[in-house]
Amino acid sequence: MTTLILTVAGADRPGLVAAVADVVDAHGGNWENSQLSELAGTFAGVIEVSVLPDRVEELQAALGGLDGLLTVAVYTGTGETPATGESWVTLSVLGNDRAGIVRDISRVLSTHALSIESMSTETRDAAMAGGRLFESTVTAAVPASTDLEALRADLELLATEIQVDITLD
Protein backbone atom coordinates (compact mmCIF):
# COMPACT_ATOMS: atom_id res chain seq x y z
CA MET A 1 0.00 0.00 0.00
CA THR A 2 1.04 3.57 -0.64
CA THR A 3 0.42 6.22 2.01
CA LEU A 4 -0.88 9.57 0.79
CA ILE A 5 -1.23 12.66 2.94
CA LEU A 6 -4.01 14.99 1.81
CA THR A 7 -4.31 18.58 2.93
CA VAL A 8 -7.75 20.04 2.36
CA ALA A 9 -9.14 23.55 2.75
CA GLY A 10 -12.26 25.38 1.66
CA ALA A 11 -15.21 27.48 2.76
CA ASP A 12 -16.97 25.49 5.47
CA ARG A 13 -20.28 23.90 4.54
CA PRO A 14 -22.02 20.55 5.05
CA GLY A 15 -20.80 17.60 3.02
CA LEU A 16 -17.09 18.41 2.65
CA VAL A 17 -15.85 15.35 4.55
CA ALA A 18 -18.34 13.16 2.70
CA ALA A 19 -17.10 14.49 -0.66
CA VAL A 20 -13.49 13.57 0.13
CA ALA A 21 -14.49 10.21 1.65
CA ASP A 22 -16.56 9.33 -1.43
CA VAL A 23 -13.61 9.99 -3.75
CA VAL A 24 -11.19 8.03 -1.55
CA ASP A 25 -13.58 5.08 -1.36
CA ALA A 26 -14.44 5.12 -5.07
CA HIS A 27 -10.75 4.73 -5.90
CA GLY A 28 -9.96 1.92 -3.47
CA GLY A 29 -8.42 4.09 -0.78
CA ASN A 30 -8.72 3.61 2.94
CA TRP A 31 -9.09 6.63 5.27
CA GLU A 32 -6.50 5.93 8.00
CA ASN A 33 -6.10 9.05 10.18
CA SER A 34 -7.19 12.66 10.06
CA GLN A 35 -7.22 15.98 11.86
CA LEU A 36 -10.06 18.16 10.60
CA SER A 37 -11.35 21.47 11.88
CA GLU A 38 -13.35 24.58 11.11
CA LEU A 39 -11.38 27.76 11.72
CA ALA A 40 -12.86 31.22 11.10
CA GLY A 41 -15.36 29.87 8.54
CA THR A 42 -12.79 27.76 6.70
CA PHE A 43 -12.75 23.98 6.84
CA ALA A 44 -9.18 22.63 6.90
CA GLY A 45 -7.53 19.34 7.59
CA VAL A 46 -4.91 16.72 7.04
CA ILE A 47 -5.90 13.17 6.07
CA GLU A 48 -3.79 10.01 5.82
CA VAL A 49 -5.03 7.62 3.14
CA SER A 50 -3.66 4.25 2.06
CA VAL A 51 -4.18 3.05 -1.50
CA LEU A 52 -2.79 0.37 -3.81
CA PRO A 53 0.24 1.69 -5.73
CA ASP A 54 -1.43 1.19 -9.12
CA ARG A 55 -4.38 3.41 -8.08
CA VAL A 56 -2.40 6.40 -6.72
CA GLU A 57 -2.51 8.50 -9.91
CA GLU A 58 -6.20 7.74 -10.45
CA LEU A 59 -7.03 8.83 -6.88
CA GLN A 60 -4.92 11.99 -7.19
CA ALA A 61 -6.70 12.94 -10.41
CA ALA A 62 -10.12 12.32 -8.86
CA LEU A 63 -9.24 14.47 -5.83
CA GLY A 64 -8.39 17.27 -8.25
CA GLY A 65 -12.04 17.12 -9.29
CA LEU A 66 -12.98 18.55 -5.90
CA ASP A 67 -11.46 21.90 -6.90
CA GLY A 68 -14.05 24.61 -6.38
CA LEU A 69 -15.44 22.72 -3.40
CA LEU A 70 -12.11 22.13 -1.66
CA THR A 71 -8.47 22.74 -2.46
CA VAL A 72 -6.70 19.40 -2.04
CA ALA A 73 -2.92 18.90 -2.07
CA VAL A 74 -1.57 15.34 -2.12
CA TYR A 75 1.79 14.25 -0.71
CA THR A 76 3.32 10.80 -0.56
CA GLY A 77 3.80 9.77 3.06
CA THR A 78 7.10 8.34 4.25
CA GLY A 79 5.53 5.65 6.40
CA GLU A 80 8.26 6.24 8.98
CA THR A 81 7.61 5.66 12.66
CA PRO A 82 9.43 7.28 15.60
CA ALA A 83 13.01 6.15 16.04
CA THR A 84 13.86 3.47 18.58
CA GLY A 85 14.52 4.99 21.97
CA GLU A 86 12.26 7.99 21.44
CA SER A 87 9.81 8.89 24.15
CA TRP A 88 6.98 11.41 24.17
CA VAL A 89 6.28 14.51 26.22
CA THR A 90 3.19 16.66 26.51
CA LEU A 91 3.56 20.38 26.96
CA SER A 92 0.69 22.57 28.19
CA VAL A 93 0.83 26.35 27.81
CA LEU A 94 -1.55 28.92 29.29
CA GLY A 95 -1.18 32.67 29.51
CA ASN A 96 -2.16 36.06 28.18
CA ASP A 97 -2.19 36.02 24.41
CA ARG A 98 0.52 37.88 22.54
CA ALA A 99 2.28 37.50 19.21
CA GLY A 100 5.19 35.05 19.12
CA ILE A 101 4.22 32.43 21.70
CA VAL A 102 4.16 29.55 19.19
CA ARG A 103 7.41 30.76 17.61
CA ASP A 104 9.18 30.94 20.98
CA ILE A 105 8.01 27.55 22.23
CA SER A 106 8.67 25.75 18.94
CA ARG A 107 12.16 27.27 18.83
CA VAL A 108 13.00 25.80 22.27
CA LEU A 109 11.64 22.40 21.24
CA SER A 110 13.62 22.49 17.99
CA THR A 111 16.81 23.49 19.82
CA HIS A 112 16.48 20.30 21.89
CA ALA A 113 15.72 18.20 18.73
CA LEU A 114 12.11 17.49 19.70
CA SER A 115 9.72 16.82 16.83
CA ILE A 116 6.15 18.06 17.26
CA GLU A 117 3.70 15.22 16.71
CA SER A 118 0.58 17.27 17.39
CA MET A 119 -0.23 20.78 18.47
CA SER A 120 -3.51 22.44 19.28
CA THR A 121 -3.86 26.12 20.08
CA GLU A 122 -6.77 28.30 21.08
CA THR A 123 -7.33 31.91 22.03
CA ARG A 124 -10.37 32.95 24.00
CA ASP A 125 -11.66 35.83 26.07
CA ALA A 126 -10.34 35.94 29.63
CA ALA A 127 -13.66 36.09 31.47
CA MET A 128 -12.58 37.67 34.75
CA ALA A 129 -9.50 39.67 33.77
CA GLY A 130 -10.44 40.88 30.30
CA GLY A 131 -8.12 40.49 27.33
CA ARG A 132 -7.37 37.23 25.55
CA LEU A 133 -5.93 33.96 26.82
CA PHE A 134 -3.69 31.66 24.79
CA GLU A 135 -3.80 27.92 25.46
CA SER A 136 -1.87 25.17 23.74
CA THR A 137 -1.18 21.46 24.09
CA VAL A 138 1.82 20.00 22.29
CA THR A 139 2.85 16.36 22.02
CA ALA A 140 6.44 15.91 20.89
CA ALA A 141 8.82 13.04 20.21
CA VAL A 142 11.94 13.18 22.36
CA PRO A 143 15.11 11.50 21.11
CA ALA A 144 16.92 9.33 23.68
CA SER A 145 19.87 11.75 23.56
CA THR A 146 17.81 14.72 24.82
CA ASP A 147 18.73 16.16 28.21
CA LEU A 148 15.26 16.52 29.75
CA GLU A 149 16.50 18.65 32.63
CA ALA A 150 18.07 21.14 30.19
CA LEU A 151 14.82 21.18 28.21
CA ARG A 152 12.82 21.78 31.38
CA ALA A 153 15.19 24.61 32.42
CA ASP A 154 14.92 26.29 29.00
CA LEU A 155 11.12 26.04 29.07
CA GLU A 156 10.99 27.50 32.60
CA LEU A 157 13.22 30.40 31.50
CA LEU A 158 10.99 31.01 28.47
CA ALA A 159 7.83 30.87 30.61
CA THR A 160 9.25 33.59 32.83
CA GLU A 161 10.30 35.72 29.83
CA ILE A 162 6.97 35.58 28.03
CA GLN A 163 4.85 35.34 31.20
CA VAL A 164 2.95 32.12 30.53
CA ASP A 165 2.55 28.87 32.48
CA ILE A 166 4.28 25.92 30.80
CA THR A 167 3.82 22.42 32.16
CA LEU A 168 5.96 19.55 30.85
CA ASP A 169 4.65 16.01 31.45
TrEMBL record:
Domain of life: Bacteria
InterPro entries, A to Z: ACT-like_dom_sf, ACT_dom, GcvR, UPF0237/GcvR_regulator
Residue ranges of every copy of the ACT domain listed in the record: 5-77, 90-169
Xref: PANTHER family: UPF0237 PROTEIN MJ1558 (PTHR34875:SF6)
Protein name: ACT domain-containing protein
